[in-house]
Specification:
alpha/beta, TIM Barrel, 8-stranded mixed beta sheet, globular, binds iron/sulfur cluster
Length: 328
């Protein structure tokens, strides 16, 4: 894959500092039941990079000592980490809200019959990628049969109360554009998704999050190989909205990789751009918990600490803005 860092380094993106941290976003590893063409971590059934029990215990400890409100789990398929349930249950005991970034198909895999009811019983919020409401488009991007299996999984979740207005179980869907353009209006697309998914398949969900593609990882490499990188960067810059800067997600979250290293966001994690808390090099969750010189920063919820920004940050501020919770 193309090394994107040299292309992104020279930036005029405004310097930003952290507000109080409330979210811990964790990549539990690259093991996945799918092998999607667009996958940014190249996840798959043969990947062995997976968060170990020791790091899981450190995460739990961090939730005990820092004021964390939300634990946001991603992967791979986060549920395939053998410690997934232990981590979720520990977070619930601490009163931390849990989001599972679920690929939906895992719900129907052999050996995961426990998953749907486990998520429902623990009121876990689900965020699931569904790049289109049309079968062909989804199967092209995510593999043959993925659309139908995803629909079957949503039906199962609906039956448990997910996506139903009178329940408190949240199922949000995530959309990102297929090519080098900005997402359409989140509100308009959500209305289309709701109508089409209900009339075609009888399924319900709560909100649709539209996310702008970052010019990094596989999408970035594809732009470079097609000679579209500069144009896409220009599109992001031309649509810069200063009012979105204050709302970018890195101001309130830290992102942890499967080895326990700390980043400002998932995108910086993919770029290997470590969080520059107190200028500590290659910050690890262990440092954050135990190193004396980092304790006052942690106590302050990392407020006022710098964020490692580069040109890819323009994807978060273009147009309606973009975060892991959709438009800003
Ligand atoms: S489901 Fe998600 S993590 Fe798994 S291969 Fe597809 S994009 Fe990657
Ligand atoms: S990519 Fe977005 S979330 Fe990440 S550091 Fe840049 S502005 Fe923040």
């Amino acid at each position: 894959m193309h090394d994107m860092l040299p292309l992104l380094k020279e930036t005029d993106f405004p310097a930003i500092t952290r507000d109080k941290m409330h979210t811990l976003q964790v990549n539990l590893g690259y093991l996945c039941n799918q092998t999607c063409f667009h996958c940014h971590v190249n996840a798959g059934p043969r990947r062995t990079e997976i968060m170990e029990k020791k790091t899981i215990a450190q995460l739990i400890h961090l939730m005990e000592i820092a004021d964390i409100k939300t634990l946001d789990l991603t992967g791979g398929a986060p549920e395939m980490n053998p410690h997934f349930r232990e981590l979720v249950l520990a977070a619930k005991v601490l009163g931390v809200h849990v989001i599972d970034r679920c690929n939906l198909t895992i719900i129907n895999e052999e050996g995961y019959e426990w998953l749907a009811s486990f998520l429902a019983d623990n009121a876990i919020e689900i965020a699931a990628s569904l790049p289109c409401y049309l079968e062909d488009n989804v199967d092209k991007q995510r593999g043959n049969g993925v659309f139908q299996t995803s629909i079957d999984a949503i039906k199962k979740l609906n039956a448990l109360g997910y996506g139903q207005a009178d329940h408190h179980l949240t199922l949000n869907l995530v959309y990102n554009p297929q090519g080098p353009g900005l997402p359409p209006s989140q509100e308009g697309l959500q209305a289309d998704y709701k109508r089409e998914l209900l009339t075609r398949y009888g399924i319900l969900f709560d909100e649709l999050f539209t996310i702008t593609n970052q010019p990094i990882a596989r999408f970035g490499s594809t732009l470079v190989s097609k000679g579209q990188f500069e144009d896409y960067m220009q599109l992001l810059k031309d649509n810069f909205q200063a009012s979105n800067v204050a709302g970018v997600m890195c101001r309130n979250l830290i992102s942890i990789d499967w080895r326990g290293y700390v980043y400002d966001c998932d995108f910086n994690q993919m770029l290997g751009l470590h969080a520059p808390i107190n200028s500590h090099p290659e910050l690890h969750i262990e440092d954050l918990i135990y190193k004396a010189e980092l304790q006052s920063a942690l106590k302050a919820g990392l407020k006022g600490q710098p964020i490692a920004v580069m040109n890819h940050c323009y994807a978060c501020t273009a147009g309606q803005g973009s975060s892991c919770g959709g438009a800003l």
